[in-house]
Structure formats: structure tokens, C-alpha cells
Specification:
alpha/beta, Ribosomal Protein S5, domain 2, 4-stranded mixed sheet, 4 helices, globular
Length: 196
């Protein structure tokens, strides 16, 4: 059972995450940031991940701390749910269009965190959401999941569509990388381990 529960409480945020990597794409999302709720709902549905995530934070200051800590907690949950990573494909990629936008995401469940972020979403807010925070979310996710993550937004003009393309491609790439392959005995590594 590839499930995990993570809870985090600091002076700035309080977050709980429950994840099932082998779910049906059912999301119960309430981060108190409507746009992030929408993006995480897309992640859950398109990744076929069951996700229950709740969060509150010092959003009266701004959304930075809560978005960053959501990335930390989701990363920790994915890392814990993957366990020793035995029998999984390890690599995953997806190219996803969203109207005029196109995004490619590739990842390696290597145990080594690294983020390549090539996504210019502009400075215009999406509703009340600052799109610059998406890089912070994915950096935190990569650091705490132990996943090498390449996000390449190829093009787009509408920053809402561009963000959707990113999250959908991210979800589908993770789904592929985390899939079991019966031909793989142990972990897919000549080192015999997918941990640093």
C-alpha cells in the first residue's frame, strides 16, 4: 500500500497531507488558497492520486509560506509513499497541451533532488495568486521528495492555462514514473539503491 500521512505545524503554517499513489484521482483539497486548490485538484485527478490536503497559514502577510510548505509536505508524502522504490519504472515524462499552452515535465525518482524550472508565467496575478510562487512550490517538492524534476513550459500566453499545463504534465509524469513494472527486480539502479 503506497500511502502516507504527513503533518506539519510551525508558527507560520499548519498542514496535513494524506496520499495514496494507487488511488482513483479523488481529491479533497482545502489549502485556503483557491488557485492552489485548483492546481492540486488537477494533480490528483490527472495523476490518479487520492489526495487529502488541508492547510492554513499566515496568508494575511502573503501566500509564500503556505505555498512553500505545501510543496514541502507533498514532497515528504510522496517520498514516504514510494518507500524503497522497488519495482517502479523510476523515470516518467509527459507533454500536455492546455489550449494555447504546452508543457513538458520529465522526472527521475532517483532519491536526488534537483529542479530545472524553465517556465516564464509573467508577473500578472492569476486571480489573487502570484505565479512566481509556483517555482517555490516545485523547488520545495523536489527537495523533500528526492525527485529530479525538469519543468519546461514550451509556450503559452494565458498564465492560468500555462499553470494548468504544468500541473497536468507533472501529475502524468509522476504517475508514469511511480508505476510498477514486473520485469524490474528490486530498484532500477546499478547502485542497488535509489536513496542518496
Amino acid at each position: 500500500m503506497r500511502k502516507a500521512v504527513i503533518q506539519r505545524k510551525t508558527a507560520e503554517t499548519e498542514i496535513s497531507v494524506t496520499i495514496d499513489l494507487d488511488g482513483k484521482g479523488e481529491g479533497r483539497i482545502d489549502t485556503s488558497i483557491p488557485f492552489l486548490d485548483h492546481m492540486l485538484s488537477l494533480f490528483s485527478r490527472h495523476g490518479l492520486v487520492d489526495l487529502d490536503i488541508r492547510g492554513r497559514g499566515d496568508t494575511a502577510v502573503d501566500d509564500h509560506h503556505l505555498v512553500e510548505d505545501m510543496g514541502i509536505c507533498l514532497g515528504q508524502a510522496v517520498r514516504k509513499a514510494l518507500g524503497e522504490r522497488k519495482g517502479i519504472r523510476r523515470y516518467g515524462s509527459a507533454v500536455v497541451p492546455m489550449d494555447e499552452s504546452l508543457c513538458n515535465v520529465a522526472m527521475d525518482l532517483s532519491g536526488r533532488p534537483y529542479l530545472v524550472w524553465r517556465a516564464e508565467l509573467g508577473e500578472q496575478k492569476i486571480g489573487e495568486f502570484d505565479p512566481a510562487l509556483l517555482r517555490e512550490f516545485f523547488k520545495s517538492f523536489s527537495d523533500h521528495s528526492g525527485i529530479t524534476l525538469h519543468i519546461n513550459l514550451r509556450y503559452g500566453t494565458n498564465n492560468h492555462h500555462m499553470a494548468e499545463a504544468i500541473f497536468k504534465a507533472f501529475a502524468r509524469a509522476l504517475r508514469k514514473a511511480a508505476e510498477a513494472d514486473q520485469r524490474i527486480d528490486g530498484v532500477l539502479s546499478t547502485k542497488g539503491s535509489l536513496e542518496c
